[in-house]
Amino acid sequence: MDACTQALRLLEQEVHGIRARLDAQLPYALQMPMVPAANVSDKAMAAIEQHMQAARRQLRLRIAHFLRRLRQMPPTPRNVAEAQRRYALLKLYFHAALTHFEIFAEVLTQRSQHGTGVWLSGLDVAAQDGLRQPGVLQNVPPVICYVERGHGGAIRRARTRLPGGGNNPVSVIRMPRERMVGTGIAASLFHEVGHQAAALLELVNAFKRALQQRFGAAQPPPVWQAWDRWISEILADLWAVSRVGIAATCGLMSVVSLPRAFVLRINLDDPHPAPWIRVKLSLAMGNSLYPHPQWARLAQIWELQYPRWQMSASQQHAFAGLDQSINEFVRVLLSLRPAALHGHRLGDTLRLADRHPQALLRRWQEVKARPQQMLADTPTLAFAVLGQARFSGLLPASQELQVIAELLQRWALAGYLPWRAGSKELSVVLNQRKPVAAASAAFA
Fold first, then answer.
1. DSSP characters for 245-306?
2. Domain ranges of the chain
3. Which pTM value belongs to this model?
4. Cβ(389)–Cβ(361) under 8 Å?
5. What is the pLDDT of residues 199-251, one digit of tens each?
6. So which domain of life are we looking at (predicted)?
7. What is the pLDDT of residues 282-306, one digit of tens each?
8. What is the dihedral of CA 237, 241, 246, 250, to 10 degrees?
């Protein structure tokens, strides 16, 4: 056997090996051990499995096409080089399929962890609720959550390109473990949900059009160039504060409570606003949506924590310019009329009557005897009520964690058992367990 013939045979055997490894890849449903309450939704699992089936089917077609071409090639040096080139491309497609598998496997594997899996299933329900608010979005993609060590959250949005090609069938939200305490969960969760909502509503493009209408062909002033650079993260913060009120801003303050050098750093290469002005902006957006003296009080607290006298002269000048433009910027932001809202203003759409601080406090008075049950059927509102009660000094942090631990379990179980999350039957089931200890240990 000459070298060319042997080279082509070796490539054929390698491709047969790829196909064998592909055929050995089982569906997630056959290899992910988890309690039923920790499962991702049927819609999410179906979307993931269908995506992976399509990827495997496409790869098998590529393999079959390669093998047909290979068997038709005379064993010449030129054909060996051509076959090697095609084989190298085929391997890249195979590695892309494995990458897609691992992306979802990493998320689903956590569902088998004691305590963690059920909490994540509850977060899936809360995230889905935060994305599907009345009058805003109806046909939304499935959302699945997982946790990871680190400081910040992240989202791999649905319908965006996956590594190696193909569109992501679900939204995948990464939650930092450090945020899995109290209503701090809500700030991170609904910020990431906000990224998906902003993409579905095409809010970034709507703002850029408004900016062009405002300044025409002229270059916007530096302050507005900064807002434009940071607009994606700002819109996610706006969504979070519209969903859960002051819980979003308090959670943001906790996330960016870092050494002064980080909080006061302005970097236009970073899509995130400088932390000092980002908090001020969240406060301004909250006050515009839900006017109340609490926002001014919290702004005063923030300036006491990071006072201006600690800034350099250049920082004082830059932050003063941004601070002075906040109100006008927020007015422009809330006046956006993206096509998806059919002529309605963004601010009018996002403003929810039951999220005003006074409405949230009234709701707390109604549910404080049994918040785990009475807030269970409205996940996003539940986080807003609890966050407002905690900020107002009506809910101790230790009790807040207990309430949220049971709510997450209720939401997870309601997706599996034939009961509403707020039903008395579910209360009986949960009273037979000690959810907080198990859940808290999982995130220790």
1. THHHHHHHHHHT---HHHHT---TTSSSPPHHHHHHHHHHHHHHHS--THHHHHHHHHHHHS
2. 3-109
3. 0.81
4. yes
5. 999 999 999 999 999 988 888 999 999 999 999 999 999 999 999 999 999 98
6. Bacteria
7. 999 999 999 999 999 999 999 999 9
8. -20
